[in-house]
Every structure is written in structure tokens, then in C-alpha cells.
Amino acid sequence: MVVAIEAKKRLTLEEFLALPETKPYGEYFDGDIEEKPMPQGEHSLIQTRLVIAINEVALPKKLVYALTELRCTFNGRSIVPDLAVFSYERIPRTETGKIVNKFETYPDWIIEILSPEQSANKVIKKIVFCINSGAKLGWLIDPEDESVMIFEPEKFPEIKSEHDILPVLPILEHWQLSGAEMFNWLKV
Q1: Cα 117 versus chain centre, distance
Q2: If you ran DSSP here, which 8-state letter would residue 56 be given?
Q3: Which end of the chain is less packed: N or C, by CB atoms within 10 Å?
């Protein structure tokens, strides 16, 4: 018996970006396209509440802007973080001051929420890539064990949970959120 194996065509970043956008979103890493899992209940609720909480504190003072499912293309890769948080002065703008449609830079803070069928190592790889590219902070939220893995430049990752205060960007130092507060959002 002969089994035919079709070789998977590796795309360039430009070829990937020329493809129509899909749902679930595809992310581009070194010629490979990874499909992001569709958010489910816990993931969606944490994502929604977190973007509201960050923007509620930060937008009136023009400190940062948290955006959901925003494609960020930089350093030869194209990713779609669950939340991409940009310091206000780093938000790419058009000549008229409007936000651009295509972000060709890394977020200052990348937040990922682990889905049940998602590989933690693949998500960690994405967060570490952002940190190595210039991001100042990364969170990997695991709703199943109610913990948050914290990534910062030149530091070992830390795990925060329960009443631990989660680190935020220095510009938001007056805002505090504990693991317990965040995971209590899941109780509706």
C-alpha cells in the first residue's frame, strides 16, 4: 500500500497577510499558520471584563489602550493576542490622528487566556516572542487552575493566584487586580 503525503506549503509573511482574514484567526510563525481556538465561556468573559477594567482606568488619562483580537505583525511574525495593550503614545496613528488598521509593532503588554484545547507551550512561545521583541509584560491566564503566569523582560516567569496582586505596566501602578478578583468574574 502506498500512502501519499502532501507537503504542506510554507508561506511567506507577505503571502499570509495577503490571504483573507478568517475566523478563527490564523497566526503566522516562521512559515507556519496556527489557528487560534474560538473563545468559549470562561475565556470570553475574562477577556471582556479585563479589557473593560483596563480601559476604564487608563483611557480617561490617556495612559494605555487595551484592544481585543488585534492582529500585530512585527519581526517576521503575525499574531492575534487575546488582549494587546499599548501605551497611548505607541498607538500607531494615521496623519489625521486616527488609529491605523494595520498594527506593525508589538504590544507593550500581551495577555493570553488559555483555552482547554490550547497548547500552553505554544502560547508561552508567543508571549516570550513579544517580550523578546520589546513588550514589557505578558500574562498567561489559566482559568482552569485560576492562575496567571507572569512574563517580564530579564526575569524568570512567576505564577500568581488567589490574593496575589497581578503586576501591571508601571504607568498603571495605581490600579490593582488580584487573581481572586479576576477569577470571581466567572461567577455570574
Answers
A1: 17
A2: H
A3: N
CA distance 126 to 71: 13
Give the pairing of strands 109-113 and 137-142: parallel
Q: CA angle at residue 96 from 94 to 100, to 5 degrees?
A: 25
Q: Which residues have CB under 8 Å from 16's CB, separation 6+? A: 26, 28, 33, 78
**CB-based contacts of 173, cutoff 8 Å, min separation 6:** none
Set of cell numbers at residue 136? 514589557
3-class DSSP assignment, residue 111: strand
Farthest CA pair distance, the chain: 68
CATH topology of domain 39-184: tt1808, chain A (3.90.1570)
pLDDT of residue 9: 66
Residue 6 has pLDDT above 80, yes or no: no
The C-alpha cell that represents 148 in the structure block: 496567571
CA proximity to 116, closest of 182, 34, 42 = 42
Residue-wise pLDDT for 131-164, tens only, equals 999 999 999 999 999 999 999 999 999 999 999 9
> Quick one: average pLDDT of 60-70?
96
Domain ranges of the chain: 39-184
